[in-house]
Design goal:
It contains three helices and 17 strands. The protein is mainly beta. The protein has a domain of 177 residues: Lipocalin, CATH 2.40.128. It is globular.
Length: 261
């Protein structure tokens, strides 16, 4: 799927085509052979550090006609990456002049059919602009659920057949997001739950949520400072750590309790 930074600029000949793809189309640049051997891709960068999947059948070349199994239009404008579980790919998007609608769509990997699309209301209205993120955070598939995060502060849990499970608004609970370009950090799985980094020009934090009900496992307050990075989860000396890159520092947190190491 085409994606570009919120402040990105393209030449006149490329701008229309790339923005149109980002706004309305999810492109399955996959051969039938790859689809037959598709492996799960559960979160941003999948394993948290490398853009490597398990399939060995990825095509080395493609075009509008070559090695494209299907192309499907989906609602909304989304800069997030797709995540894959079973035979479904899940994508996010936003709609409206002030991002009034948040969208999560499921696409059948075999046919490109949009199986369902869930729409919910945003909790922070943000004027639509090419300078501000548009559904940039990538979601997570975990067990039978999909979890999504939006620059409006909404974190939404759906079953993989599109039924709402729980929803929280971080902006309503902890204050609206600041910064000129919105939020771009994706969700990350850890042993304790689901991590979300809110790093902006107001008091910031790293929060861990229980995937079952969305309740807070822990919340670590951080000084204000903008970061678009996604937490990286690693194991060191028997302890699981979340590594955060923000401002002029790299910090490590214990994922069991949120203590800063």
């Amino acid at each position: 799927m085409a994606r570009s930074g919120p402040g990105g600029r393209h030449s006149a000949c490329a701008c229309t085509s790339r923005l149109e793809i980002g706004r309305r189309a999810f492109v399955g640049a996959l051969s039938a052979q790859v689809l037959a051997h598709a492996s799960p891709w559960t979160q941003f960068l999948d394993n948290g550090s490398l853009s490597l999947g398990g399939s060995t059948a990825v095509p080395l070349a493609w075009s509008d006609q070559q090695n494209v199994a299907w192309k499907a239009r989906v609602p909304g404008y989304g800069q997030s990456a797709p995540v894959v579980s079973g035979r479904m790919a899940y994508v996010t998007g936003v709609e409206g002049p002030r991002k009034e609608a948040l969208l999560v769509s499921a696409i059948d990997m075999a046919s490109g059919t949009v199986v369902w699309s869930h729409r919910s209301a945003s909790s922070q209205r943000i004027e639509d602009s090419d300078m501000v993120s548009k559904a940039a955070p990538t979601g997570i598939t975990y067990k039978d659920s999909i979890f999504t995060f939006f620059e409006t502060g909404n974190i939404l849990a759906l079953s993989q057949d599109g039924q709402p499970q729980w929803e929280r608004s971080l902006t309503e609970e902890f204050g609206e997001f600041g910064g000129r370009h919105g939020i771009g950090s994706s969700l990350r799985l850890c042993r304790a739950g689901i991590l979300a980094l809110v790093a902006h020009d107001r008091p910031s934090y790293l929060i861990c949520l229980n995937p079952k009900d969305g309740s807070t496992v822990w919340k670590a307050d951080r000084p204000q400072g903008v970061s678009w990075s996604t937490p990286t989860v690693v194991e060191h000396a028997g302890r699981e750590l979340a590594l955060i890159s923000g401002g002029d520092a790299v910090e490590a947190y214990d994922t069991s309790d949120g203590s800063k190491l």
